[in-house]
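# nightly structure sweep
# worker-07 picked up a monomer target from the shared queue
# config: single-sequence mode, recycle default, output format = structure tokens
# input follows
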Amino acid sequence: MRADVPSGPPAVADPGRRQLRLRREAWGFAIGSLCFLVGAIPFYAEWAGPVGTGVTFVVGSVFFTLAAFVQLSLSGRHVPRRGTNRADRWDWWAAAVQFAGTLLFNLSTVAALAAAVADPTRLGAGWRPDAWGSAAFLVSSTFAIVATRDRGDLWDRHARSWHGTWLNMIGSIAFAVSAIGAYVVPVTDSLVSAFWANLGTLIGALCFLVAALLSRRAVGEAVGEAADAAPDGAAASA
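# output follows
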């Protein structure tokens, strides 16, 4: 955040602490994405069974939520005040909507797991929160694109990057395709497309994973730059 914009989101006082939280955010999204990626692989689903696969998705959704909370807390826990610069304002909304989306994925994955325990053959459990969560991710990615246009004005210039923003958008679109494929047609009691339900999840998770890993690398480079610029012994450990 620039010094001439005091009404923006509160910055973390200790740069080292801020970088540590950014790293935690990146690792949270990476682990969550990896769980969704693995859970969508047919061979794994066959080996783990409906319950094991359900547990994998629940764990992944929890890591998504933890990472999204870190991102929201870094963007500022309260709605930006009047006068907040455009980039920080859209960045906050992107983080807030994304956090809401992860909570919906929590509901979706827990519902699917509960259904798998009760009846492994049941289809479509938790579809509504899954669909709404996917929609929230699309909205969040759109807001993030707007925020990234002015990334130099953000609370941290490493908070958004074009490659990460567009990878997240592609991943969000893929998750939306997955949600459509996972809809159970009432007349036939079958999925619209099991193929696209799995492929959409796999592609989306892969995009989120790559974006998180690239973000992790960017944070590492930022820590290195800060360490080089700081006096001896003053660099914070992240």
